[in-house]
TrEMBL record:
Domain (GP-PDE): residue spans on this chain: 39-325
Database matches in NCBIfam families: PEP_CTERM, VPLPA-CTERM
Pfam families for the chain: GDPD
TM annotation in the entry: 331-350
Gene Ontology biological process terms from the UniProt entry: lipid metabolic process
Name of the protein in its database record: GP-PDE domain-containing protein
Species per Swiss-Prot/TrEMBL record: Haematobacter genomosp. 1
UniProt keyword Signal, yes or no: yes
Organism superkingdom: Bacteria
Length: 356
């Protein structure tokens, strides 16, 4: 007897095909990405090349420079709060050493409370950053723009920006290593609390830890929420098969397609063949992290991969990345074809999530 889910998918695909084939023969623009839409520019830790990373001031500048998504890395404090912080320790990016003695031999985020972390100031580390944390023509719109924010505060900033500007910039949180179940669950709870629950809210969740990707996916389903899931790691080929190596080992693209919707990989290992292999499995490919020191260098580094069909990328310099994407010329195609491709792609993801 045929599975009811399979029957529904077959009927939906048939209806979609009929709709596409009966559509007027007009022309629409498409890019070489899996979705046919323009590649996304992800503000890596905010405008981290110019201003202190993972701060509200840095995220605000990234939004003004044209980011499609902002990326907060997420760590959990000693009292269970979620803060935007890339490192597991506080001393690389903040003035913690001038205010606190080491704890347990260091300055781990998990050894400090949120109240203690809120006393710290994040300092600039980007290659083009000014020592006084300023950017020409930019004045942050909040008090204390370079304190360590919570994930909730980052989401509040993004919501306010989108509402004020009529935009739909997304958020791309990373659950940091090592595997931390309370952290994963708290990320989902915070997104739900802040109203980031549906596909149109444009949430992409990422981790180098496969178990975290799986757990966040399960939590999304339990809460009736929608988001894209991405497995992070480095491009590898084993026995002639492409895959990604994360913190807990190598997994083929086919194995990743069973739990996620995309991969985020170090750009140095990306080839056109890897992108094609991922797209064949309906996986998007996002590259990290481009740090060009000029717009010209950005074109040299990024543009070839966009021509291969790269779906998006992380950069410390949103303005340079935006310029490269905006230079792309979409290819005209019959209007029915993007509709068909996008719809069938969505059905594949639905089927994968239901049967994984």
């Amino acid at each position: 007897m045929e599975n009811p889910m399979t029957s529904r998918i077959t009927l939906a695909a048939t209806a979609l095909l009929a709709t596409a084939l009966s559509a007027p023969i007009a022309e629409a623009a498409t890019y070489g990405t899996l979705s046919g839409k323009a590649p996304i520019v992800v503000a890596h830790r905010g405008a981290s090349g110019y201003l202190p990373e993972e701060t509200l001031g840095g995220y605000e500048l990234a939004l003004k420079l044209g980011a499609d998504y902002i990326e907060p890395d997420v760590q959990m404090t000693a009292d269970g709060a979620l803060v935007a912080m890339h490192d597991a320790t506080l001393n690389r990016t903040t003035n913690v050493e001038s205010l606190f003695a080491p704890r347990n031999g260091g300055y781990k985020v998990s050894d400090f409370t949120l109240a203690e972390i809120k006393t710290l100031t994040v300092e600039p580390t980007g290659a083009l950053a000014r020592p006084d944390s300023t950017y020409p023509g930019f004045t942050p719109g909040m008090a204390d723009p370079y304190k360590v924010p919570t994930l909730g505060e980052v989401l509040d900033l993004l919501t306010a920006h989108n509402q004020a500007n009529g935009t739909s910039v997304g958020v791309y949180p990373e659950s940091k290593t090592p595997y931390n179940s309370p952290q994963n669950q708290a990320i989902i709870a915070t997104l739900k609390d802040k109203g980031y629950t549906d596909a149109e809210d444009k949430v992409i969740l990422q981790s180098f830890v496969r178990a975290s990707v799986i757990e966040m996916g399960e939590a999304l389903e339990e809460q009736g929420m929608q988001a894209i899931l991405a497995q992070l790691g480095s491009v590898r080929m084993v026995d002639g098969v492409y895959g990604v190596a994360g913190t807990d080992g190598f997994f083929t693209l086919a194995e990743i397609a069973g739990i996620a919707d995309g991969v985020g990989v170090s750009y140095g290992g990306i080839t056109k063949e890897f992108i094609d292999a991922a797209h064949d499995l309906d996986l998007v490919v996002h590259a990290y992290t481009f740090r060009p020191l000029s717009e010209a260098e950005a074109f040299t580094m990024i543009r070839p991969m966009l021509d291969w069909g790269l779906d998006g990328f992380f950069t410390d310099y949103t303005d340079f990345g935006r310029a490269v994407v905006d230079s792309l010329a979409p290819v005209p195609v019959p209007a029915a074809l993007p509709l068909l491709a996008a719809g069938l792609g969505g059905l594949v993801i639905l089927r994968r999530r239901k049967t994984a």
